[in-house]
Design goal:
The protein is mainly alpha-helical. It has helices spanning 6-39, 47-50, 53-72, 81-84, 95-110, 114-143, 145-153. Helix 3 (53-72) packs antiparallel against helix 5 and helix 5 runs antiparallel to helix 6 (114-143). The mean pLDDT is 84. This is Steroid 5-alpha reductase C-terminal domain-containing protein. It holds the Pfam family PEMT. Keywords: Membrane, Transmembrane, Transmembrane helix. It comes from Candidatus Nomurabacteria bacterium RIFCSPHIGHO2_01_FULL_38_19.
C-alpha cells in the first residue's frame, strides 16, 4: 500500500472536483449541439452579431492558458493570501471556469446555436454552485486562514 502525503491527497481531491465540473460542461455542450442539430433554432438573425462570438472565443482561450500557467507556478513553501493573488487569480478565484464559459458561449454564438448557449449557462451555474464550492472548501481546509483572506479579497 502506498503512503501519500497530505499535499498529494489535497491535489487529488481538487483535481477530481475540477474534472467532474469539466465533464458536466462537456456533457451539456454535447447535448446542446445534439439539440441544435435536431431543431435548428437560431439565436440571432443578424449575422453581424455572430461575429461577436470570436472575441469571446479568443478571450476564453487566453484566460484558460493564463490561469493554467499562473497556477503551475504557485510556490508551495510560501503560502499567503498575496501568493494566491497572481495573474488572473487577482480578479477571480476561478479563472479557468470563466475561460471555459467564455470559450463555449463564444462558440455557441459563432455557430448561432441557441441550445449550446442555453446549456452553457446551465453548465456554468451548476459548476459554480456545486463543484466550485466543493473546490473552495478543499482549498480552505488545505490553506486555512490564508485562503479565507484571499476569498474576502477576491469576490468572484
Amino acid at each position: 500500500m502506498k503512503v501519500y502525503d497530505k499535499e498529494y491527497i489535497y491535489k487529488q481531491k481538487v483535481h477530481r472536483v475540477l474534472a467532474q465540473s469539466y465533464i458536466i460542461y462537456f456533457i451539456l455542450f454535447l447535448f446542446g449541439v445534439y439539440l441544435d442539430l435536431i431543431f435548428h433554432f437560431k439565436l440571432f438573425t443578424n449575422p453581424i452579431i455572430v461575429v461577436l462570438g470570436i472575441p469571446l472565443l479568443a478571450f476564453g482561450t487566453f484566460l484558460i492558458f493564463w490561469a493554467q500557467k499562473t497556477s503551475n507556478s504557485l510556490h508551495k513553501k510560501a503560502i499567503s493570501k498575496e501568493n494566491f493573488c497572481r495573474g488572473p487569480y487577482c480578479y477571480t478565484r476561478s479563472p479557468t471556469h470563466w475561460g471555459l464559459f467564455f470559450l463555449v458561449i463564444g462558440f455557441g454564438i459563432v455557430i448561432n446555436a441557441v441550445f449550446v448557449v442555453l446549456f452553457t449557462l446551465v453548465a456554468f451555474l451548476v459548476t459554480r454552485l456545486i463543484f466550485l464550492d466543493k473546490q473552495e472548501k478543499i482549498l480552505e481546509e488545505k490553506y486555512g486562514t490564508h485562503y479565507a483572506e484571499y476569498k474576502k479579497l477576491v469576490k468572484f
